[in-house]
Amino acid sequence: MVPKQYTPDYFPHWTEVSVRFNDMDSLSHVNNALFNSYFEEARIQVVQEIPEWIEDLERKRSFVLRKSTIEYLAPILYPDTLLIGSGLLRVDAARVYALQAVYSSNTNKLCSTAETMGVWFDLQAQRPTRIPASDVLSNYLLSSNPS
After folding, report:
1. Is residue 52 helix, strand or coil?
2. In this structure, are residues 103 and 86 in contact, taking their beta carbons and an 8 Å threshold?
């Protein structure tokens, strides 16, 4: 379960994203369609911190989102800076399961959560491929017993 208030040590990776005025919809809050973009930005930053994954990107292999479940828990308003926590639930041969949360830095309250499953994909062969092993991967795993 994700904490309802921002807890800096819950997630192993944090990304800050500024809410832009044009992210707003006619109801004066961030349009739900933008939430996936916020989560994606944070996931890309995690991938870019794992050296073996970066090397595999140069070999035309990449992370492809296969499934995303987003919960919208509170509106995001302008202006604000979002704190997006990301952690890996598990990694198997070709799949990565992640949990993410968006917090408002203005209120420290939880606005949204996402559970995703991505596949490591060979772009030339157009099929899933084995995820490269990494010595730093354990740094991004969520604890099974968060404090």
Report:
1. helix
2. no
